[in-house]
Design a protein that fits this description.
The chain has 341 residues and is an alpha/beta fold. It contains twelve helices and seven strands. The protein has two domains: 247 residues, Spore Coat Polysaccharide Biosynthesis Protein SpsA, Chain A; 64 residues.
Length: 341
């Protein structure tokens, strides 16, 4: 007779909480964590308030407090927490902010695709319902719409509808494969994670989760975003395209990109040169010269559009963790959330 299969041990779920100026919200955020969360790693990123003292006063045996000697940025704080969770052999690592905007009652929804092996990384989606969207301040809503589209283009995750959302969960086995040196240490952290996950061909899934907005103050400044993000997005886009479509693979998307860029370059150089010659000499370009410039431009543009279409329609569907099974009883927690809703 075949040997009886041993039941799987409950998955070790750990939560990373970066802390900076969250003294008024951090206690509520930690107390709201479900009982099946085994480890809560709070990283005090040299916060000028008494966030660390309030965390220690909770006397929660699950809490691990790590303090940075100087302020390194939210990305560095999260990565410090990730490393501690991996050291403690966590199976799934969740990232939640310390400002209590991320409702822990929705953690089961965030974890279920990971437990079933259907995704490698899950993100909350605040855009799933119009009623929920109205709770977001208007300025944040407009900024997130513009930034979300830019991040879609940069990261290649076209089906992620709220890439700016920081309520995330990742399988530890996938987290170990992420190139940590390529992850940003500031507020660009979430975008750089998506870029690296796309390079790995990890499956990222949206989970509808409303945000909570109260009296918290965001430390993100629009001026810093405008100075930092455009260049960072362009650099990440080029890095991702090179690594994903040329270094790790060379398929139709790469062929269309190369052909399209060559044709566009020829069109711009050839057409621009003859346009300048026409201005200098006063002699109009011949019809043949115009066609030699226009046709490559149209063909190159069409090839680039086709490359984008291929990337949008042929997203990654097979998770890296598909052969890894985890067990965690979330039924009671789900019932509690539904009854409270």
């Amino acid at each position: 007779m075949p040997a009886r299969q041993q039941p799987l041990a409950p998955a070790h779920v750990a939560v990373v909480v970066p802390c900076y100026r969250v003294a008024d919200q951090i206690v509520r955020a930690i107390r709201g964590m479900p009982s099946w969360v085994r480890t809560i790693v709070c990283v005090d990123d040299k916060s000028p308030d008494d966030s660390a003292a309030r965390i220690l006063q909770l006397n929660d045996h699950r809490v691990v407090l790590i303090r940075h000697e100087r302020n390194l940025g939210v990305g560095a704080a999260v990565w410090t927490g990730y490393e501690e969770c991996l050291r403690r052999q966590a199976d799934i690592v969740v990232k939640m902010d310390g400002d209590n905007q991320m409702d822990p009652r929705y953690l089961p929804d965030l974890l279920e695709p990971l437990l079933r092996g259907e995704a490698d990384y899950t993100k909350g989606n605040r855009w799933s319902e119009a009623d929920q969207l109205r709770t977001m301040p208007a300025v944040r809503r407009l900024g997130n719409l513009v930034l979300s589209f830019a991040i879609k283009v940069c990261s290649g995750h076209w089906r992620v509808f709220d890439p700016c959302n920081g309520y995330t969960a990742i399988r530890a086995s996938v987290l170990r494969k992420v190139a940590h040196q390529a992850i940003a240490r500031d507020y660009y952290f979430e975008t750089s994670m998506l870029v690296q996950l796309n390079i790995l061909r990890a499956v990222v899934r949206d989970v509808p989760i409303p945000a909570r907005y109260a009296d918290e103050q965001s430390s993100l400044r629009i001026g810093r975003v405008l100075r930092r993000f455009p260049l960072a997005l362009a650099r990440s886009f080029l890095q991702r395209v090179w690594q994903r479509h040329f270094v790790r693979d060379f398929g139709p998307c790469a062929m269309f990109l190369v052909s399209g860029l060559l044709l566009l370059s020829w069109s711009l150089l050839f057409g621009g040169w003859h346009w300048l010659q026409s201005i200098a000499t006063g002699t109009p370009a011949t019809a043949g010269t115009v066609m030699l410039a226009a046709l490559p431009f149209l063909m190159g543009f069409q090839l680039l559009v086709q490359a984008v279409v291929i990337e949008m329609t042929q997203g990654d569907t097979v998770p890296l963790c598909r052969d890894e099974t985890l067990s965690l009883d979330l039924s009671a927690e789900s019932r509690e959330r539904m009854s409270a809703a």
